[in-house]
Design goal:
The protein is of the alpha/beta class. 30% of the residues lie in helices and 20% in strands. It has one domain: NAD(P)-binding Rossmann-like Domain (Rossmann fold, 3-Layer(aba) Sandwich). An 8-stranded mixed β-sheet has the order 4-3-2-5-6-7-9-10. Strands 1-8 form a two-stranded antiparallel ribbon. The longest helix has 20 residues. The chain is globular and about 50 Å long. 40% of the residues are buried.
Length: 250
């Protein structure tokens, strides 16, 4: 069982969301509700959120992503921050460029939680090598299914494995991630409606379980939106997935 680190108690948690597309815009909406609820329970809590994405909202995005038609042409990070700030009273920040981990490695030291919602293996691998200490929530999916994992990036021995402790992303290509949909029909035919929201809901629940209840009994899940299945990732599966440590959490 993993316990929330003491240094994350009783303060607003600084959150960086990298990628504000299908899953990223969905987790942003979840963070709005989580922030509102946590602050209602304890005004010292909640989130200080920064969104990072260099892409603009397209017509094809409207059917499957959490943007308004009036936001077509706007930067995704700025559009989502506008929605959070103007419709929900938040004070979120936006980085309107593609997040370059090699140029922004030191930025991670400023955040308590980093959320990745983009299928670029190079970004995942680079984050795993960061010389910083933070919680990393990663959400990845294909057309109908995927996995959500929350773990540690740490300069010390980890007690909670992250996505790169389960899978080797060091030699995988980003080429497939560059495919873009030109229409809503093409977008939905390539990826089932709801798969992004499914991933985001699991991610948000992991954050709620950890922050509200102070502990995690599982650090992620495999899911299939079409089959309506969710299989939690527990400590028993860690070694099978490739993670071993001499000092795992009790």
């Amino acid at each position: 069982m993993y316990k929330l680190p003491m240094n994350l108690l009783g303060k607003p948690l600084k959150v960086l969301v990298i990628g504000v597309g299908g899953t990223g815009s969905a987790i942003a909406k979840e963070l709005v509700q989580l922030d509102t609820t946590l602050k209602a329970l304890d005004e010292r809590g909640g989130f200080d959120v920064t969104l990072a994405d260099g892409s603009n909202v397209s017509e094809a995005n409207i059917a499957r992503q959490s943007f308004f038609p009036t936001q077509v042409g706007e930067n995704k990070a700025e559009a989502m921050a506008w929605t959070a700030n103007n419709l929900y009273g938040k004070e979120w920040h936006a980085m309107n460029t593609h997040f370059d981990v090699s140029k922004n490695a030191s930025v991670f030291r400023s955040f308590d939680i980093v959320i990745t919602a983009l299928d670029r293996p190079s970004v995942r691998y680079a984050i795993s090598l960061s010389k910083a200490n933070f919680l990393w929530l990663d959400m990845g999916n294909d057309a109908t299914s995927g996995q959500v994992v929350i773990g540690e990036v740490s300069t010390k021995e980890k007690t909670l494995p992250n996505i790169c402790d389960f899978y080797d992303y060091s030699e995988l290509s980003d080429a497939d991630a560059e495919i873009k949909s030109c229409s809503a029909e093409e977008s939905i035919s390539r990826q089932e409606l709801g798969v992004n929201q499914f991933a985001a809901r699991i991610g948000a629940q992991l954050l709620w379980n950890l922050i509200r209840h102070g502990e995690l009994k599982s650090n992620g899940a495999f899911f299939d939106a079409k089959a309506l299945s969710v299989d939690p990732i527990t400590k028993d599966e860690w070694q099978f997935l490739g993670f071993e440590t001499t000092r795992q959490s009790a």
